Amino acid sequence: MPDPVVVVEAVTKRFAGHTAVRGLSLAVAPGAVYGLLGPNGAGKTTTMRMIMNIIAPDEGRVRLFGEPWNRRNLSARIGYLPEERGLYKKMKVLEVLVFLAETKGIARRTAKQRAAEWLERLGLADWSLKKVDDLSKGMQQKVQFISTVLHDPTLLILDEPFAGLDPVNSQIMKDTVLELARKGATVLFSTHIMEHAEKLCDSVCIIARGEKVVDGPLAEVKRRHGGHHHVIVAVERGSEAVDRVWADRSLVAKAHNYGQYAEVELADGADPQRLLTALLGAEARISRFEVTEATLNQVFIDLVGPDAARPAARGEA
Amino acid sequence: MHRTWVVIRREFLAKVRNKWFVIATLLGPALMGLAMFLPAYLLTKSTGARTVTVVDASSDQVGRRIADALDAAPLITAHYLEATLGGVGDLADSLAAEVGRKVINGFLLVTDQTITDGDVEYRGSNVSSQNDMANLQRYVEEAVLTQRLERVGVDPRLVADARLRVDLRTINIRGGKTTEQSGQAAFFLAYVMWFVLYIALVVYGQLVAGAVVEEKSSRIIEVLVSSLRPSQLLAGKVIGVGAVGLFQLLIWAVMAKILIDQQGFFLDLLGIRIPGGRAFGLPGVPLATMGVLLLYFVLGFFLYATMFAAVGAMSSSDADVRQAQQPVLILIVIPALLAFGALNDPDGPIALTLTLVPFSSPIAMPIRWSVSAVPLGELAASVGLLVVTMLGVTWVAARIYRVGILMYGKRPGLRELARWVRTR
C-alpha cells in the first residue's frame, strides 16, 4: 500500500465533562474515497476538526501527506467543507469565491476564472453577481462546495457533504466528488447516511461514541461483518403464516423490516431456496426476492446497535 | 503576509461599500457645515436693530447721556423719555404693552440712584440674550462713569480720551516659546482631537467586535480558520477596520478644509453677511501635534480594537456583543471625560497621570500635547507604557480570540476566559 495521505494515530479529545474521541486511529490511502461513518454524536466532526488542525488533540497525532501540521502549512492542498456551512451573506457570489480562494494562496485572476468555470458547471452562472443572501439554501450549498474545490486540492475533507440537499443536487454533488476522485483527489467524508457511503466509498471507518468500531475496505467490512446469506424480500400483506416463517430460527437469523421490504439474514447453513419455498408455503404474495450481500446499513446497525444512536451526554453532532 | 492583506482588503471593501458607511461619511460634513453656518445664519437673521426706550426719572438728565451712548452704538436705537418719579409706574405699564406689540424690545428705568448706587433696571423681551445684556451693561456703565467723573469736575474731553475698551487677546505659550496660536484656537484644536480620538476608539472599536461576531454568526469562521491562522485573521480584521476609520476621518478632514477655505462661497450661498466675510478660521496645526495625534490614534486603536475583537470572539450574536462590550466602553468613556476636564490644568498632576496611564493616554496625551509643552521624557514614558500594555493586551486578546471563534452558546465567565488564555 502506498503511503497514506491521512494518518490519524490514537487521537483522544476531551471536552469539559466528556470524551468526544477516544484513541482513534485511521489511515486513508491516496486516491481513496473514504467514509467516516457514525451515528449522531459519535465524534465525526471532532475527528475532522482535529484532522484539519482546527482543534488540537489531547493525545495522539495527525499527519497529512506524511507531514505534521505546522500552523496552516498544508491548508492550500486541502479542500475542507465544515459541517457548519457559512458564507459572507452580503457579498456577491463571485467575490466570496475569489476571496476564499485567495486565502488559500490562489492568485486573484486565476481564482476569478476558475470560479466562473465552476459556477457555470453547477448551473449558477447567472447568479455570480447576486448577493449570497439572495440564493436559496441549496444554491448556497453549491457555492460552498465550489469554495471547497476551487483551489484544486488533492485532499478533500467533507463533513456531511450531502446533508440538506435535494435528491437532484445530492446526485450532482456525488457525481462531482466521484469525478474529482477519478482525477486523483483523495476524499475523506463523513456521513450518517449509509446509502451515501455505500454508493461512494471504497473504504470506511465506523465510529460510535468516539471509538472506532471497524475500518477497512468496504467489501471486506461487509464480508467480515455482514454474516451469511442476505435476502431482500418484499411481501404484499403479512399473515400469521408469514410471521411464523420469520420466527423460524433454523431459517432466519435476523430480519429487519423496513416497511416496504425486509432485509433478512439467513441462519447458518440455511439456503435461500428454502426460505422462498417456506414463504410460498405460507401463501405469501411475493413482489421482490433478491439474494444479496449485506447492505452497509445492515452492518452498521448490527455493529453499532440501536444504543449508539443516542449520543453520549453533551456529544457533538 | 499576503493572506493577511487579502483579509484586510475584503474587510475594508465590505465596510466601505456598506450603505451606512456612505451615509455617515456624507452626513459628517453636512453636520459640520450646519454647526459652522447655522449660528452665523441665525445671528444675521435675529440681530435686527434693538429698539430701547430710556425712561429718565433722574434730576440731572443722566438718562439722556445713556440714551445718546446707546443710540450711537451699532444695531441699537434708543429713544429718550423724560418722566417724574411718580409717573414711572404708569409709563412702565404702557411701555410694557409696547414691548408686547413688539414696537420696542425693552426699556431702561434710570433714577438718581443710577449715579449714586449704580442702580438701573431694564425690562424687555430680550433679557435672556447674554449678548444684548452685556452690550447694554457696557454702554450704561460707560455713560454712568462719564457722568460721575464730570460731576466731580473732570474735563469731558479727558473722560472721552480715558475711555478705553479692553480687548483681551490670548496667546498660547508652549515650552517657553510664544506661539501664533490664540488660546481659543488651542482649545478648539484640543476639542477636535478629543472628538476624533473618542469617536475612533468607540465607533471603530465596536465595528471590530461586530465584524468578528458576524463571521461567527454566519458560520463562515470555520472555513476561514481552515485556511488562515487566527493571528492573520485577527490582524486582518483590526487593520482593515482601522483603515476604514482612517479613510473616513481623512474624508471628513478634507471636507472640513474645503468648508472652511471656501466658507465665503457657502456664506454667499446662504445669503449670510458677516463682517470680514469669515465665520471660522482654521487653527494652524503644528506637524509635531499631527504626529502625536496619529501615533496615539494607531496605538490606542490597536489597544482597544483587539479588546473589542476578543469581545466579538466570546459572543455568539450582536445582542451578546452589546452586553459584553460594556466594560470595554466604560474603559474608554471614563478616561475620555476625565481627559477633557484635565484641559483646565494641562500640567497638573491629574493631567500627568492621565497621560501616563495606558488606558487613558491615547486620548489624554494628544489633547495635553496640543495645549501645553509636554516634556519629551513624559512623552517617551507614556508611549512606552502604552506600547507595552498594547502588546500585552493584544497577546491575551489573540488567545481569547483563537479559542472563542469556534465556541458557540453561553458567553464565558472570567474563569473560563482565563482557561482559554492558558489553552495550548
Give structural notes:
The complex is a heterodimer of chains A (317) and B (424). Chain A has 317 residues and is α/β, with parallel strands linked by helices. Chain A contains 10 helices and 14 strands. In chain A, the strands form 3 sheets. Chain A has a 6-stranded mixed beta sheet with strand order 6-7-8-3-9-10, with helices on both faces. In chain A, strand 7, helix 5 (167-182) and strand 8 form a beta-alpha-beta unit. In chain A, helix 2 packs parallel to helix 4 (137-149). The relative contact order of chain A is 0.16. With 424 residues, chain B is of the alpha/beta class. Chain B has 2 domains: 2-41 and 181-422, no CATH class; 46-162, D-Maltodextrin-Binding Protein, domain 2 (3-Layer(aba) Sandwich), CATH 3.40.190. The longest helix of chain B has 35 residues, at 183-217. The mean pLDDT of chain B is 83. The interface between A and B is medium-sized, with 27 and 22 residues.
